Amino acid sequence: MDPVRNPYAPGAGQRPPELAGRDAELSAFDVVLERIARGRPERSLVLTGLRGVGKTVLLNQLRSAAISRGWGTGKIEARPEQSLRRPVSSALHMALRELGPRHGDQESMDAVLGVVKAFAQRQTADAKVRDRWQPGIDVPAASGRADSGDMEIDLVELLTDAAGVAADVGSGIALFIDEMQDVQTDDVSAICAACHELSQQGAPLIVVGAGLPHLPAVLSASKSYSERLFRYLRIDRLDRPAADRALLAPAEREDVGFEEAALDALYEAADGYPYFVQAYGKVTWDVAASSPITAADVAMAAPVAEAELAVGFFGSRYERATPAEREYMHAMAELGGPGGTAVATSEVAVSLGRKPASLSPARDSLIKKGLVYSAERGQIAFTVPHFGRYLLDHPD
Q: What per-residue confidence (pLDDT) applies to 321?
C-alpha cells in the first residue's frame, strides 16, 4: 500500500479524515446556535471525557460550525498556573475583530475594545511576569469597567459588553476553552458567574468547555448551581458502526477496502477510542500489501502500533511522573486491571503498605499533571484509556 496515500491521522487534536460517531453532539450544538439566533435562552456547553476520545477535535468542529453561521469566536487552552485574563482577552479580541466589519458604530466598538484592554492589563499583585501582557488593541483602556481586580466582577462586565456587540449585529460570540479542568479556582467561579448572568440576560454569548471526566465536579465545587448552568455532553469511545466508518470512509476514497475480519481485529485492538482507531489504522495501512486489508495485516501491524503508542502516547506521560507517582500508578494498575477500572484510594494505600495521608502528595500531583482524576469521592482512575494495561506490560 502506498504510504503517501495513507489517510489516517493520529495526532493531538488533529481532525481525523472522517469524524464519525459525533453526529448527536454536532446536532445538539446546531440547536444551541439556532435558539440563540432566535433570541431564546440557552445554556453553555461542556464536553467531558478521557484523553484520546476526540474532545479537542470536536471542540474545533463546533467552533467551525459557529464561524459558518457568522459568529465571532475565540479559543483558549487553560493552563494550571495561568490566569485567564491574558488568554480570554486575546480570544475575545479575535471574536470582536470577526464581528467588527459588520458593526456600523466604530465608537461603540472602540469602547468595548477599551474594556477588553482594561481587563487584560488589570493584574493582581502576585501576577507572574509572563502574565503581564500588553494586548494589541489601538484604543485607550477603559476606566471603571472590567478593571476592578476582582475576576468575577471583571469577567461578568467584559462578557456582557462583548455580548452587546454581538447583539448589535444580530449574531453571537462563542468562547471555547480546552483543558477546562485546569482553570484556576477563582477563574472557574468567575466563568460560572458570567455564564449565569449572560443566561439571565438572554445575551448571545456562550462558553463551550472541554475537559476530563471530573470537570463537572470542578464546576460544582465552585458554584452550586453549575449543574443547571451548563449542558454536559460526555464524549466516549466509538461504537462499532462508528469505528468502522472512521476506517472505511477514508479508505474508500482511496479505493481500498477491509475484510470484515480485519475490522473485527481493529475494533478489538483500538477498543473504539478514536485516537487508537487512527493509530492502528495508519500502521495497518502501511504494512498491508494490497486491498482488501486483512486480519493478517492487522496482526502484523498491531505490535508496531503498540510500540509507537508505548513511546509517544503512554511513555511520554509516564516519564513526567516522579518515582513516588509511578509507584502509585503501578498500584492503581494492579488493582484496576488492564481495563483501568477506578479504584479506591484506600485500597491503593493498603496495596503499598502506607497510610492514605502519606500518599496524598503523590495523588494530588498526578491529578495536577492530568494523569489521573478523582472519579468520585474516594475513587481514583487514569485519564488515559488503556494506561493500566501499559503499566502492567511495563512493570519497571
A: 95
